[in-house]
Amino acid sequence: MNIYVGNLDYKVSESDLEEVFGEFGTVSSSKIITDKMSGRSKGFGFVTMEDQDEANKAIEDLNGTELKSREIVVNEARPKRNNY
Predict the structure, then answer these.
(1) Would you tell me which of 12, 34, 49, 52 could form a disulfide with 8, CB atoms 3.0–4.6 Å apart?
(2) Chain-centre distance of CA 10, in angstroms?
(3) Nearest of 78, 41, 80, 77 to residue 59 by alpha carbon
(4) What pLDDT does residue 35 have?
């Protein structure tokens, strides 16, 4: 399952996400979305977990919790929209 993680502190790294979500199960990947020009975090990212039950537990338990002094938003990622 692909999980959206929003309202991230700009100092949060992909390894931070792996560590936090890894407490709930196996993390296949984590990605912080960055600005193409500056390379700075856009304040959100995605975590992929293979096991649906582990992913749902992570979403349920982590949504609204604090990570590096910011309350994060965690939910199932929606499919990417095509912007024509």
Answers:
(1) 12
(2) 13
(3) 77
(4) 95
Give residue limits of the domains in the chain: 2-76
Alpha-carbon distance of 56 to 35, in angstroms, equals: 29
Q: What percent of the chain has pLDDT over 90?
A: 93
Helix (H, G, I), strand (E, B) or coil at 34: strand
Can you read off the two tokens belonging to residue 75?
A: 């939910």
Specify the CATH number of the domain 2-76. 3.30.70.330
Computed over its alpha carbons, how large is the radius of gyration of the chain? 12
Bridge partners (DSSP) listed for residue 49: 27
- H-helix or E-strand spanning residue 17: helix 14-22
Q: Which amino acid is at 38?
A: S
